[in-house]
Amino acid sequence: NGTNATLKLSPIALPGPTSAIDPHTSATYVVTEVGVNAMTIAAPTVTTDDGVLIRITLGTSAAHVLTCTGNTLRCGTAAILTVNFASYYGSSIELMAYQGLWYVMAQNNIASFA
Fold first, then answer.
1. Whole-model pTM?
2. What string of H, E and C letters represents the secondary structure of the chain?
3. Each residue of 55-74: pLDDT tens digit?
């Protein structure tokens, strides 16, 4: 029909100091915890969650951490458990679920993967 569809995900605040990310629903998260927020995300469900997009960005300047249970993160190297964000506003990551794993689609100012 010639119209452009856009996806708008209203940001969900993560006040911390610990936050569990819903692995079954596409969402955009903004970390608002002043101290370190130790976030976790479980593995997505094979096939059912394929295509789920999770975006996380920092709204504070702490060294926040995201743990992907079961080493399910794929960032272009070996299987990864942890994302360490750099301590800057706007550090961010975008993940896509596919076949029970999280694939890094984009990243900005990630300090390290471990």
1. 0.90
2. CCCCCCCCCCCEEECCCEEEECCCCCEEEEECCCCCCEEEECCCCCCCCCCCEEEEEECCCCCCEEEECCCCEECCCCCECEEEECCCCCCEEEEEEECCEEEEEEEECEEEEC
3. 999 999 999 999 999 999 99
